[in-house]
Amino acid sequence: MEHGLFILVVTIAIATVLNVIFKRFEIPTVIGYVFSGFIISSIFNLAEDSKNFLMHLAEFGIVFLMFTIGLEFSVGHLKSMKREVFLFGGLQVMLSALLFTLLGYLLFGLEVKSAIIVGGALALSSTAIVLKILNENNEIHSGYGRLSLGILLFQDLSVIPILLMVSFFTSAEGSVMSMLLETLGGAVVIFLVLFVAGKYVVERFFDWIMQTESEEIFLVAVLMGVIGASLLAQAVGFTYSLGAFLSGMLMAETKYRYRIEADLIPFRDILLGVFFVTIGMLIDWHAILAYIHYIVALMVAIMLIKAVVIFAILRPYVQRRTALKTSLALFQVGEFALAVFALARSNGLIDTTLNQILIITVILSMIITPFVLKNIKRIVDRFSSEPETLRERALISTGFENHVIVCGYGPIGQKVVASLKEKQMLYVILEHDVKVVDSVIAQGEEAIYLANAAQKMVLSHFNVEKSAAIVVTIENELQRRLICENIASFSDRVKSIVKVNNEEEEKVYRQMGITTVINARDTIASMLSQEVMVCHLN
Q1: Rounded CA gap, 518 and 510, in Å?
Q2: What is the pLDDT of residues 512-522, one digit of tens each?
Q3: 144: which of 49, 272, 325, 413 fits an S-S bond (Cβ 3.0–4.6 Å)?
């Protein structure tokens, strides 16, 4: 016990020192954690039980990450992402797995069963690293962030059939049909518990918990919900992280979503740190010295193949830059591949040497990813420049004063701008969708700019403090909140107007300091009642 505590203290000390040093060079904390794990495993001869305990603990880092991602994507959001998840995600997994299977079978002489398992595992990307960096960069709702999330969700679903194949290839009894029926039954159970029962229970349960007025009890209830959903998913044959994501989506439908997210972020970040430490512990420096040339060549080939496959799938549907960013974000191999390799090794599908080569290859690809994501715009600029018109316009300082800033050019934003035009008022439109901006510029509108108003520097660039007013017409609830938080951080002299959907949102934005909050529900009800009175009088 004392030895274990000593190792824990040394690990924390190494991780702290490394990350302080790395931060000075803008190296992501993920790298510091991985190197800490590698140093600890090289210095100390850790028992297998200790490693397994840390692995199980670290899994909950991914669980909490997926839960907080689920909080940002309600059921409605997931329905709107059918193409990203099932079309792009399905094509990516199938094509990548097929190419890697052929590569393993034809070039490396693996048996067909082994090649299929290895190919399927290499098709998976790193949910933990990609979503963590996208969250830190506030790009989870960007074009390539949305595509990356959709493909990662399908990959998470794909872990199930890959694990089933390992069991089928090594099982003397049982059939494919029985395994498929068990999986289908598990999906039905998850749906019934998390969506049907949860829809009528969750919010009422938290209302009941809130009557205690205890932060501690509320947090314990949230933890119970997250871990319970994860265990349920694992019990019926799915992954912990998929259960956590679904429970997050469920709680996103409640009024407590922002409070839950704020309370869980410390747990998520600490446990993710543990996860990356355990990843570093898997690296065997003897294998690196012996097979470094194979490892580097294999890593480059895998990342190149995945990037090309993803770009080829996305290019017919999205802009070239978005396809490039998504392919660079997902070209690594992920943590679930490590679990697949461990199971395949224990069942005799791959030998110890190949297992170690694959593990190191995967981890090195994961180490490279944060550097790519942190500099993704500069990398993509080398292959595909932004449209000239947009780039030139973005560099021009507005110099405006007493202007109206309109955030979002959807149906409501268009009506606001039309009204401002009639009154001949000076205005600026901020829109983050490049297709919308291109289309509107082509129609002759000169006051629209490609910009993300959820970034404070953007509002500062467009002189929000000297504006007559800023109008937020964004429909996305998270983006709307981020914009309003940025507005509130400026001078309270800024006149801000935002449309919300319910009284709960109205209360939040009024407390935040937004000048005018228009509750769409109340406004429509008032208009309808006025129309009733008019009809009655007539």
Answers
A1: 10
A2: 888 888 876 66
A3: 325
C-alpha 515/C-alpha 494 separation (Å) is 8
Closest among 61, 186, 73, 78 to 127, alpha carbons compared: 61
Look at residue 487 in the predicted model and tell me its pLDDT: 86
177 Cβ contact partners less than 8 Å away, ≥ 6 residues apart = none
Residue 525 burial (C-beta neighbours within 10 Å; 0-12, 13-18, 19+): exposed
Angle at the Cα of 156 from the Cα atoms of 108 and 187, rounded to 5 degrees? 125
DSSP code at position 249: H
Quote the tokens at residue 31: 């790298």
- CB-CB contact of 257 with 206 (8 Å): no
Order of strands, edge to edge, in the sheet holding 427-431?
Answer: 448-450, 427-431, 404-407, 469-472, 496-500, 516-519
Asked if residue 68 has pLDDT above 80, the reply is no
Both tokens of 142, joined, read 């960007």
Angle separating helix axes 335-346 and 112-122, nearest 10 degrees: 160
Q: What is the 3-state secondary structure (H, E, C) of 443-495?
A: CCCCCEEECCCCCHHHHHHCCHHHCCEEEECCCCHHHHHHHHHHHHCCCCCCC
Mention every residue, 6+ apart, whose C-beta is less than 8 A from residue 13.
none
**For the whole model, what pTM was predicted?**
0.64
As a whole number, the mean pLDDT across the chain is 79
Q: Does the structure show a pLDDT above 80 at 37?
A: yes
Both tokens assigned to 17: 């020192």
Mean pLDDT value of segment 29-49: 77
Report the alpha-carbon distance of residue 240 to residue 230 in Å, rounded.
4
Domains in the chain (CATH in brackets) are 47-383 (1.20.1530.20), 388-537 (3.40.50.720)
Query: Alpha-carbon distance 61 to 274, whole Å?
Result: 7
* pLDDT tens track for 364-381: 998 899 889 988 888 988
Nearest to 241 by CA among 138, 124, 331: 124
* 135/115 Cα distance (integer angstroms): 34
Start-to-end CA distance of the chain, whole Å, equals 85
3-state secondary structure 162-222: HHHHHHHHHCCCCCHHHHHHHHHHHHHHHHHHHHHHHHHHHHHHHHHHHCCCCHHHHHHHH
- Please, where are the H alpha helices in 237-256? 240-252
Considering only CA atoms, which of 380, 322, 275 is closest in space to residue 37? 275
Q: Please list the residues that pair with 430 across neighbouring strands.
A: 407, 449
Report pLDDT for 328: 94
User: Tens of pLDDT along 98-111?
Assistant: 999 999 988 888 88
Contact predicate 303/331, CB 8 Å: yes
Three-class SS state of 75 = helix
At 237-267, the pLDDT tens digits run 776 777 787 788 778 777 677 677 767 777 7
Joined together, the tokens standing for residue 57 give 């603990």
What burial class does residue 176 get, using C-beta atoms within 10 Å of its C-beta: 0-12 exposed, 13-18 middle, 19+ buried? exposed
